[in-house]
Each structure stands twice: as C-alpha cells, then as structure tokens.
Amino acid sequence: AAAAVLVAAAVLATAAGASLGEAQVELTAAGRRLSTSTKCRQGLEAMLTNEHWNFMNLTYTKWCRIKAENEMARCCGVADFEQGRGEDCQMTRMSGTAQPTECFASCQHGGMATLCATSFGKSCSVDRKLFQSVDFKVSETFCVPEACDNSNDRENLMNWYATLYAGRLNGWHARWDDATLNCPSAAIAATLYMLAAIVLTPVALGVLWFLLVAPKERGRMLKSQEEMQAESMAEADAQAMGDLRGTAQMSGDRMAQSGMSRSR
Fold this sequence. Notes:
alpha+beta; 10 strands; two-stranded antiparallel sheet; 4-stranded mixed beta sheet
C-alpha cells in the first residue's frame, strides 16, 4: 500500500509537470530505489500511450511469446509457459538424449528497433528472468525515450517502469525484478564507424582508380586530349576540303554541259 501511495504521488507530480528541468524524484518502493527525472517520466508516458508504439508492441509481443515458449519447451523437460512452470530445465532432449543447454530466447525485433530509433529515442535490450522458479531468460528489445537517455535515468528506468506500470504487466511480462538494461555506447559506435571508414576508404579509392584510370598496355601509346583534338580538327578540315572539291567538280560539269548545249 505504501508503494502504491508513493507511485501515485509521483504520477501526480509528473502529470502536473512539476519542475520541467532535471529535478529528481527519489522514492523507495518494494525495497527498490526509484530516481528518474520529470522529463524522463513524461517521455516514457508519451511513448507508452502512442498508438504507433502500441501497435508495434502488440506485434512484437506476440512474436516474442512464440519464440520464448518454443525455447522453453526445447530446454525444459516439463514446460508450462502459460502457468510459468518448468522442470528439468537447462537440458535439451531434441537429439533423444539429455544434453546440457542454455535456456535463453533472443527477442530482438527489427521493426520495434527502427520505430524506436526514428520516433522515440534509442533502441536497447533488456535481459530478464521470465519466471521466478524457472531458470529461463529472455533478451527483449526495449525503447528508451530520448529524455531518458542519460546515465542516471537509464540506471533506474527498469525499477521505475516495473513499479509505475505494474498494472499493465502480467503473465510472462510481470517479472522485472532482475531486469538488466543494456544500451549501445555512443563512444563504441563512433569507434566502430571510424574503423569502418578506415577500412572502406582504401577499398573505395581502389574501385574508383580501377574504373577511372585506364590500364597501361605494352607497345601502345595512349593519346592525350590535345592530340585527340588535333586529329578531330584534321578530320573536319579534310571533310570540308572534300566537300569543296565535290562542289567544284559539280560546278565544272554543269558548265561543260552548258557549253556543249550552246555549241549545238
């Protein structure tokens, strides 16, 4: 009850827009410390009530449910995903004999990641244990709003999300006690881009050289642009001279014909 009162107070503060700066609201609920900025709470609420996010989240959730349930059936001797019950897990029997395996499902959804990156913030992943009594984890795509993309808000976002939106989370989505948020580092991304540029730049230059520079051939002289222009002008002059000669010859023939006619 105390946790509910604290969360309700935080919701009222968020709705009222108290301290639109980086003012922090620090609460303790169910043994967890909650500390997120007002902007982060507002950004998270705006995202979770967005119709496009909800449509994609519904599609993503159905897809991940199928993957997770299939994986649990593979790695547990007895698997009841609906009831959150599993026995003899971490052992696969797909080959006919029991072999050690990891109970883990990867639910990295490209559509959700793209929507997140283009409309809301940064696409991250959350690793969490689905059920208390089953050693089975899943890695899910989680969208961190732009206003929450700072060290303090990211550190406490999972606790805040699990407590404030507990009423929306049920079944295999209900447990977030040990959820770990993992976001790509901007420094690592910049380093990777720089390395990619270092590797690809010589390749691109080599391709351009191959396409634009003619290879040298033995015994063959390549003509310069000036030589080509001179040849072109010479051909034009020769053509003009030929035309003049043809015209002169035609004129002479006509005159000869005319003289013969008069002599008759």
